[in-house]
Design a protein that fits this description.
It contains 8 helices and 11 strands. By secondary structure, the protein is an alpha/beta fold. It folds into 2 domains: 121 residues, Response regulator (Rossmann fold), CATH 3.40.50.2300; 94 residues, Arc Repressor Mutant, subunit A (Orthogonal Bundle), CATH 1.10.10. It starts with a strand and ends with a strand. 45% of the residues lie in helices and 22% in strands. The strands form 3 sheets. A 5-stranded parallel β-sheet has the order 2-1-3-4-5, with helices on both faces. Strands 6-7-8-9 form a 4-stranded antiparallel β-sheet. Strands 10-11 form a two-stranded antiparallel ribbon. Helix 2 packs parallel to helix 3. The structure holds calcium ion (CA). The site of calcium ion has 5 residues, from loops.
């Protein structure tokens, strides 16, 4: 877990950095907004702790720029400015939390944990694709159909995932060969059919894969 602390006051920067470091995070510091934006271009941080009153580029501008770039890194504002309009402006620009200085280090650490946990939950959700009763876990390379959980080979998983992403559409063998196997020619074998047969066998009688005669295969969302 890598955290960027943007803070122009060296004393506060080192205090926060030491606290985060003791929790096992990798910490980088940036003394102004311009350096922060450059760092954020180069490194995919898990979280940013952002002061608002900064030299060169202020914190609100940093938030605005991150939103413009589509960066989704969680940002906790840590500022001496505790007035409501500034707070609201911060949230509006995408900050996920706001702590007013002076602050307790333990509170900052607790809030950092909350944000990182929330992000992990969102991520693990995004790695599961659900179509009807079928669930595909990208991280586990596993399919679940109701109570049944089956491990899939890399190829089986990619084929089923591709059908699931295009659920309800008929995908031809040629298209599956191109999209899943990367073949842009007819390999003269029935690799697609063989792989589908294996998937059906693993998923059992309720496998939601339909054969569309002379057209291809379709994953049904039932
Ligand atoms: Ca400052």
């Amino acid at each position: 877990m890598r955290i960027l602390v943007v803070e122009d006051e060296p004393r506060i920067l080192s205090f926060v950095a030491r606290g985060l470091d003791s929790e096992g995070y990798v910490v980088d510091g940036a003394p102004d907004g311009a350096i922060a934006l450059r760092r954020l271009e180069d490194v995919a941080y898990d979280l940013v702790v952002l002061d608002l009153l900064l030299p060169r580029v202020d914190g609100l501008t940093v938030l605005r720029e991150l939103a413009r770039r589509g960066v989704e890194t969680a940002v906790i504002v840590l500022s001496a400015r505790g007035d409501l309009p500034t707070k609201l402006r911060g949230f509006e620009l995408g900050a996920c939390d706001y702590i007013v200085k002076p602050f307790a280090l333990d509170e900052l650490l607790a809030r950092v944990r909350v944000q990182l946990r929330r992000r992990d939950e969102l991520r693990s959700d995004a790695s599961v694709l659900r179509v009807g009763r079928l669930e595909l876990s990208v991280t586990r390379r596993q399919a679940r159909l109701g109570e049944l959980a089956v491990d899939l080979s890399e190829r089986e998983f990619r084929l089923l995932h591709h059908l699931a992403v295009h659920a309800g559409e008929v995908l031809s063998r040629e298209r599956l060969l191109a999209d899943v196997w990367g073949y842009h020619f007819d390999p003269g074998s029935n690799v697609v059919d063989v792989c589908i047969r294996r998937l059906r066998k693993k998923l059992g009688a309720n496998a939601p894969i339909a054969t569309i005669r002379h057209a291809g295969y379709r994953l049904d969302a039932a």
